[in-house]
Amino acid sequence: MSIQAVTSSLPVRSAKQVASHPFAPLSKDEITSAAQLVQSQWPANTDLHYKVITLEEPAKVEAVPYIEAEHAGQKLPSIDRKALVAYYIRKTNKFHEAIVNLTTQTVKSNVRLGNNMHAPGDGSEIVEIERIALEDESVKAELAKLQLPEGTVVISDPWIYGSDGVGDDERMYQCFLYMRDPANPSEPDSNHYAHPLTISPVISTETMQVIRIDYLPTGKDNTLKEPQPYKPQPANEYVSEYQTLRTDIKPLHVVQPEGASFTVTEQGTSSVVEWQKWSFRVGFNQREGMVLYDVRYEGRSLFYRLSLSDMNIPYADPRHPFHKKSAFDLGDAGAGVMANNLKLGCDCLGSIHYLSAVLSDDKGGIVDMPNVVCIHEQDAGIAWKHTNYRTGRAAVARNRELVLQSIITVSNYEYILAFMFNQAGEVIYEVRATGILSTQPIDEGLEVPWGTVVHPGVLATHHQHHFSLRVDPAIDGYANRLVYDEAHPMPRSEFNPHGTGYYTTETVVERSGGYDLDFTKNRVFKIQNTQVRNPVNGKPVAYKIHAPDFQKILSDSDSFNYKRAEFSNKNIYAVKYRDGELFAGGKYTNQSRGGTGVRSWAERNDKIVDDDLVVYVQFGINHVPRIEDFPVMPCEIIKVAMKPVNFFEKNPALDVPPSTQEFNKSTLLSEQHQQSTTTGTIGGSGDVCCSSKL
Amino acid sequence: MSIQAVTSSLPVRSAKQVASHPFAPLSKDEITSAAQLVQSQWPANTDLHYKVITLEEPAKVEAVPYIEAEHAGQKLPSIDRKALVAYYIRKTNKFHEAIVNLTTQTVKSNVRLGNNMHAPGDGSEIVEIERIALEDESVKAELAKLQLPEGTVVISDPWIYGSDGVGDDERMYQCFLYMRDPANPSEPDSNHYAHPLTISPVISTETMQVIRIDYLPTGKDNTLKEPQPYKPQPANEYVSEYQTLRTDIKPLHVVQPEGASFTVTEQGTSSVVEWQKWSFRVGFNQREGMVLYDVRYEGRSLFYRLSLSDMNIPYADPRHPFHKKSAFDLGDAGAGVMANNLKLGCDCLGSIHYLSAVLSDDKGGIVDMPNVVCIHEQDAGIAWKHTNYRTGRAAVARNRELVLQSIITVSNYEYILAFMFNQAGEVIYEVRATGILSTQPIDEGLEVPWGTVVHPGVLATHHQHHFSLRVDPAIDGYANRLVYDEAHPMPRSEFNPHGTGYYTTETVVERSGGYDLDFTKNRVFKIQNTQVRNPVNGKPVAYKIHAPDFQKILSDSDSFNYKRAEFSNKNIYAVKYRDGELFAGGKYTNQSRGGTGVRSWAERNDKIVDDDLVVYVQFGINHVPRIEDFPVMPCEIIKVAMKPVNFFEKNPALDVPPSTQEFNKSTLLSEQHQQSTTTGTIGGSGDVCCSSKL
């Protein structure tokens, strides 16, 4: 019953030798080549509006032999490079999806997509929509009613229109209007969310014209009022010039005088990262941002692919047009395109390696995305400790983590997304929500139960954030199963006469479906490989999932919100693997109808035992805004962790060298308390730390 | 409706001027004086065994005027110093509790405590018990049956006997026996938990003799076997000499070239800590370890007292004697006495200030406890960020935390306990469980549903860890109330035609009692002061509690476990304040019967609205051991946070200066990706970070 493992680490190749790895995102040449191939399908001079040009990942049946050959140092099979291109005939609603084979330079398919399948937004489109909204004469006429001071700068935040089944087949934007502080309109970074306006233009992307102007309700009900002369309100600026900054924070530097412990081998558009027995490949694409492939520990496979599958943010105000606010920030926009350019010393601290990427633009050209991922180590406190109280000897090791972080700005909101690894075989995915609340105008002095007043006349409506982490496991191999453990009290009996006994059970998840946590039973999901057994206790090797529970989507099951955000009603979805099924909310989320996401796949009721399955781990928060969340909110942090269970033979971090002052070089600030250097005595409590054998 | 606040910060006095603060733990002189006062109550030469000599904290009606006068810079009222002394007539079961007034040098009370009220263990007693167990002839006779090799070192881990109502009125210890690796008995730090023995002596502390020897069941049922000749098993050592250590970890230093941002003003046996608008006093006592008093932000009061109230660890094996394993690590032992001496560079990283303490010994003398608390800052990632996508300007601040950490060793287990503060007004309490699992012998090849085999012949039984954080709030004043918010879907209606609406409700907790979280309703508890209103939205100032849910105690409600661990069946207990009610599991937990803890206080059904209430926040884990938890477990981390809600007028961390490279001095590792210094352009995404106004 030995543990089978692929033991060789990934051979390092130079960037020149390998054109592309099958998982590598499209290179610049591949992007332009894909666009040209699609263009060639159309009459000359057809103006195509490219929405997506991205890698069409290889079929798993091809990819697995490739990566196994990589790790075994064998000849690599060849795999054709393919691209997915989604595009419009510009200024029409004719939305197409093409798959092109870049290796053979052929177009494999090129289809017009059906009703209610719309493309995500893109940067140039957003800028154009903003302009159209603000230059429209009827919008200007409405704005005139506000009697704004000369020079006021009105800002338009285009929102994906959303779905409600009411005249929403057309692809549209709902623009929410704000203004810079009217008393200070030349401040380009004025927090316009403190000055929301009641006028909301709707623009059709087919005609690129304003087709309707909505008024926003500002009271307790659906009453709409004509725009009123504006009432001056104080500003609520977040940029530093408007703050009285603290002066008493002393610098804190993270210094690695011998460099960092990780290596990053950039190979074209993807990189191999190796650190503390971990190895994996990092890619970066338009929709998902960071994706991790082929995650291994000491050469043993763990995860074929890890990615954020989507997120959904539905809002609580039931009134038009707010009832349509339900953002899919990956599907509607893209964690890749929205990624920040991370600045040295600002976003990431310590010794940093940055990864850059290339994405496509609406013309089939290139957008450089520098510094979209930062990689660094951090100290995360003590990893483990034990002091033998009889000798006083303390054994302690510190917890070093590897962090891969990216930050996305989705209009008002920011999300800081990070994969983290530690030396105890654990993988952590962390999301921090920050940025600015989405605001709407409210009559002064009013309170409503679906939001919080965060500034005079400004309401921040309650909303939920639901995230879906896609986990394609390969725990010591590709045939895994999902199980869950529960802990149950033993009934009173002769065996349990004092009522204190309890026991655990393990239940196999037989079929695809949605599953919930149940803390009352301490239900914990594990992904197991029953073909590989722990040599000490014979249990199947596994990784367990630690995810916090959360209130599921509150929109009712007949709502579009519920039908579209297919992942947000369950803690776990488990489905049988199928190529191309990556996005828990469906491939095209913009104004979608549902039916193409993970809930629908789960309804296939596939058997998923000892097979190739994919697990979607949901987590989230119900954001009930508070004053402290304005003008920019302090990060709200959520973590999901995957930890080994009977995968190793002992604590995998036991071989981390003891934490010593010589290595860590801490500084003593207190004057009066000398650090003892004497050896331990019986009954001491850690007098002796980290020293060699007494 | 202005926010009333006590605005002056705590005046700093030198250690010489202030003899003691009313909250300061007993000084050396006070400890010995208290002992002598009690001694004087008895005939000369009566040998007293001191178990507890600790500060008897002043009545709140006295303490509040004192701290208010402190902050107002007024004349301080005088408050008598008092001590609680719990002691035995040595080698008897005559357990007494005395209250002495150190200021008047009088003994206010001195009573013999009743049945089933027993003292905690103490260091010298533990050492004695170990010796008695191993020197006892009948124990030796049993050990001889094991036919251990010459020179084998047997170790005795004395456990508090526990309660089961079966001949357990006497104060006893249940000793669990182990041995060092028999093949290597001269290794003083051999992990004896890998070699558990089936012989368990029971010792009475009244006679200090072995009164019984139990055999431990090693099968699937209650069958007991005579001790068998031992079978050699491999060792499972955790100290570094037995590991092949990793050699590829590069150092990581946390350096504060201008020192740390906090100040620690040591005043006798307590210290005032000031950092980033926070101020509080730290004490350290035998039972609770670290206690925080008078926690304020910008001079506004938040918490009168914060402390770990107790923890309980019940075990899942229903068979004798394991059914009695239910440790109260504070009440049975003490987080103060068990605290590690934290070593510079080992346990805490960065620029560290250490606090030391003095405790008492069993003879009424002094035990110096150096370096029991370490104080330092740490960087905890990004605090908040927003990028204006139109200008490309990013505003970002980093999250600096202040950490006060102590570590306790309770025989096999370790707990790392930390209070943390950040610049967004948040208080976090973090527990990390590490150390060594409690083990027992099991027949080889066997599996049982109440534990995990972690080494050949070694079972680690499932157990729960339940912690109780005592929060004595003073949110902008001493009359507070506990409420909880919930989020509910709106029913479909004309107002909510699309089924997307939801709203929040707030419910007041009227009476003392135990309350649960309910994530299906997103129930969040808040401590409010309705007399102080937020000037922006008129809502009462409050602090909310973020605590993860957990499986409550599985022992049934008739069990001693349940009756004794009064806190472990509810997420929240709220009671009306009464002096002296500090310990959620009762004052004397050793072999207790229950009835003296927070559940009992809650049954008084006091009104607690706009009054002086105390909130106990429970949190915990059900520890189902895995191989990776042996021989020392990687830290399992749980956090509870308290965050402001409508307490401030905006994000309180908004005035943290922007994160800049000049300040943070990160190091660029990647070669190929230049950091841009150009100003932002329209449509950029964070090209410009942290710069001054464009």
Notable characteristics:
mainly beta; 694 residues; 8 helices; homodimer; disordered C terminus; 11-stranded mixed sheet; disordered N terminus
Structure explained in plain terms:
2 copies of one chain form a homodimer. Chain A is mainly beta. Helices cover 9% and strands 39% of the residues of chain A. Chain A is built from 8 helices and 34 strands. In chain A, the strands form 5 sheets. In chain A, strands 16, 17, 18, 19, 20, 25, 26, 28, 29, 32 and 34 form an 11-stranded mixed sheet that branches. In chain A, strands 10, 11, 12, 13, 14, 15, 24, 27, 30 and 31 form a 10-stranded antiparallel sheet that branches. The first copy, chain A, is globular and about 80 Å long. In chain A, 57% of the residues are buried. At the A-B interface, strand 9, strand 16, strand 17, strand 18 and strand 19 of A face helix 3, strand 9, strand 16, strand 17 and strand 18 of B.
Tell me the layout of helices and strands.
2 copies of one chain form a homodimer.
Chain A: H1 28-39, E1 48-55, H2 60-72, E2 82-89, E3 95-101, E4 106-112, H3 123-135, H4 137-144, E5 154-160, E6 172-179, E7 199-204, E8 209-215, E9 253-255, E10 263-267, E11 270-275, E12 278-285, E13 289-297, E14 300-314, E15 326-328, H5 329-333, E16 351-360, E17 366-388, E18 393-410, E19 413-422, E20 427-435, E21 439-441, E22 451-455, E23 458-461, E24 463-473, E25 481-489, E26 502-508, E27 513-515, E28 524-533, E29 540-546, H6 560-564, E30 572-576, H7 598-602, E31 613-623, E32 633-645, H8 661-664, E33 667-668, E34 688-689
Parallel strand pairs in A: 18-34
Antiparallel strand pairs in A: 1-2, 2-3, 3-4, 5-6, 6-7, 7-8, 10-11, 11-12, 12-13, 13-14, 14-15, 14-24, 16-17, 17-18, 18-19, 19-20, 20-32, 21-23, 22-23, 24-31, 25-26, 25-28, 27-30, 28-29, 29-32, 30-31
